[in-house]
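Why this split exists: single-chain examples teach little about how molecules sit against one another. For that reason, every record in the complexes split bundles all components of an assembly together and asks for one structure covering all of them. Below is a record exactly as it appears in the raw files.
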Amino acid sequence: MESILQAEHLIKKFADFTAVNDISFDLHAGEIFSLLGPNGAGKTTTISMLSTLTSPSAGDAVIGGHSIKRDPMAVRQLIGVVPQEIALYEDLSARENLNFWGQMYGLSGKTLKQRVEEVLERTGMTEKAAQRVKTYSGGMKRRINIGVGLLHRPQLLFMDEPTVGIDPQSRRAILDTVKDLNHEGMTVLYTTHYMEEAQELSDRVGIIDHGQLIALGTQAELTRQVGETDTLILHVGETDITDGLVEKLRGLHGVIRADSTDHTVAVITPAAEEILAPVISAANESGIKIRSVDIQEPNLESVFLHLTGRALRD
Amino acid sequence: MKKIFLIGLKDLLLIFRDPAALILMLLAPFALTIGLGFVTGRMGNSTSSGISDIPVILVNQDGGQLGTALIEMFHSSDLQDLVAPSEMDDFTLAQQAVDDDQAAAAILIPAGFSNSIIPCASTASLDSTVVALQLYSNPTRPTSAGVIKTILETFLSRVETSRAGGIVSIEQMLKQGLIAPDQAMSVGSQMGAQLSAQAGNTASSIPIQTQNGQTGTFKVDTLAMMAPGMALMFLMYTVTYGGRSLLTERQAGTLPRLLVSPTSPRQILAGKVFGIFLTGLAQMAILIMGTSLLFRLHWGDPLAIVVLLIAAVAAATGWGLLLAAVAKTPGQVSTIGSAMMLIFGLLGGSFFSTDNLPGWVQTFARISPNSWGMDGFSTLALGNGLNAIWTPILALLAMAVILFFLAALLFNRRGFAAA
């Protein structure tokens, strides 16, 4: 499969802190690749390097045959970037914003006008195009924020957590837009800390934590790493101290792994239904009141839990 | 180049859509100019000019008609509020008095001045060399000294015009045989007597432009001094706003977005600089046109105004850019910028004449575009042209180059994206 991006041993350090630690991966043309990881995992820093905003401390990446270090201007012609934060001029209208950004990508004349109208239509903003961005809702701003990244029809689109802080309806619209773009042939690198989004969108997923790519593959390949296991999630009271319970659970027969986070205890087991009763007994013995229980079949969340001992939202 | 232009225009549009910025850029200078106009009487019925009783020492060693005419002119009723002339015999002592800040200027009318201009049958010929007047200015009172210089130049201009006209007339009369060669000197003397009478005639107006753009009696328009002061002070606000926008764009994410587009950091920086410059230019142009229309204020020679405007805005832009390069947050730019605007306004003479400030303060004030700008605008308001303001123009342009260089150095060191 043709590769549009090859990242090789990318490292980014800020003084003593290593934000991205030796990341390597390829992106296949026409795929949606998600970088899944909690906040602070290094997703945005990775996108910043790949989009030539910041230079890697070490390593390199080649996009469309151009090195991000040696030929950043050529790389910028090929990529589109949808940043995590809304990066628009609030005192300009949607149309004025799109016109300005289009011209920054070298569009002009009829082509510019045509692309602007296309993007407005795609994002459903044609009717409100003349209004200033500051009058829009968060979801509308997000849509225009994405639209700017599409104006010049990039070969590769970087989308950095584009659904953070928006209503479910706008989120749905954005996810559908990403799928539509991919169907039209656009390669997408999508970062998120929402497991559901990565599962819904991605052909392949890279799981990133503490600046390292800890797993990479299709969803099927990743869940196979966990094996035929279920994850039992116990939701406990806010004031309950779960350390004792976790120790007890680890001693139970059939428990592969038990970890606690804020108000939840996660138990990985080959047969969730079978150990449910002993788990609840152990909680009662420890004086911990269980508020609810979820049983999850293997998914990206359990893969992350399996690899790190922590939930994605931590 | 196109992207630089587009970024600049975008910034211009954004600032003109910010009501708060518009108030400080345009409304505040207008309001303050009007306020100061009332305080100084320019907006009311008072005839006070705001600049008055300029001490000037006259040393008349000529004794001729023109020397006397010049002395009489300084004592005329037209100038009685504006200047406070005194006379001395020794020009060295007069210079000493100027050095001691007792006068804004001293004028020496050398012996033979009148005879070098007015043909006299016994002592001069038509092509004799003109003896020059000497003006000794007080550098710590540039505005007052400028007024004296303008009065003197106006007087000399009239004398020179009449002299040249007289010579041409006599030559024509000789050619056409209307007078004999031996009559030329006596005719010249008669014409000279008329010339000195005209130059020294206090009833006749000195042809210098007044605020309504017509020739008339000599008058310094206070508003023509104050309006540039306010405009220059609030120009510093505008460039500060522009510098702030660089950091605001970084915080808002639009600068990183520009940096990942196929636009080089140099183009972006140049575009931002162009935007600041364009905004400053637009602000000053609106203020100048507004005050001209509303207050019938005469700023001076339009070409000179344009050149001075470009130089002043370039220097101010340099300060805005340096501020953006030094500060880390938009808040810092606003705080430092506000302080800079007021300090430069005070030192630069936006509120009052700096003539009486200590010498070292006046020297320090030269770091501000306001100071040089005020010199230039004041000189133009006194009726001078482009030739009289090359010093402030060059100083402002030099300031702009130095500040741009320093800012570029800082941006380069810190990295533009992190600026």
